[in-house]
Design goal:
about 150 residues, alpha+beta, Ribosomal Protein L9, domain 1, Ribosomal Protein L9, domain 2, 2 domains, 4-stranded mixed sheet, 3-stranded antiparallel sheet, 9 strands, rRNA-binding, Large ribosomal subunit protein bL9, Ribosomal_bL9_bac/chp, Ribosomal_bL9_C
């Protein structure tokens, strides 16, 4: 079965790759989970969109990773507005995607939410926090942000 991957799959490929897999694996695992789409002529356009989106998020090399780290260090006003109770406790928690959006709104670079390492206890109260962002295997940056009530 010929499929086009829409997400990275371990030991198989990256988004946009055309792969040949056994029928059962494709039909029972990849397709239902949205990890792949059937390879058709119209799907080629989707491949191009996936690769463009991936290229926008990608850190190209070590020098680019240092540039992005400098941009992150220059950010001062990263705030994540959330709904809270009267005592400052959040309804839910701040997720990596929320933080990536807040960095973008503050004038920072586009970050991949999978590279943001949130603290183990999650962010469940208002206040100031710091997270580590893995930009490259050798380079990581830090983002200071504040969680405020809406």
């Amino acid at each position: 079965m010929k499929l086009i991957l829409t997400a990275a799959v371990d030991k198989l490929g990256a988004p946009g790759d055309i792969v040949e897999v056994k029928n059962g694996y494709g039909r029972n695992y990849l397709l239902p989970r949205g990890l792949a789409i059937p390879a058709t002529r119209g799907a080629e356009k989707e491949i191009e969109e996936i690769k463009r989106a991936q290229a926008a998020r990608e850190i190209r090399d070590l020098d680019h990773a240092h540039e992005v780290r400098e941009q992150l260090d220059g950010l001062t006003d990263v705030t994540v507005p959330v709904k809270t109770s009267a005592n400052g406790k959040l309804f839910g928690s701040v997720k990596a995607g929320d933080l990536a959006d807040a960095v973008k709104k503050a004038g920072g670079p586009t970050l991949d939410k999978r590279n943001i390492e949130l603290p183990k206890g999650l962010v469940k109260k208002t206040g100031n926090y710091q997270v580590v962002v893995k930009l490259h295997p050798e380079v990581s940056g830090k983002v200071n942000f504040s969680v405020v009530a809406q």
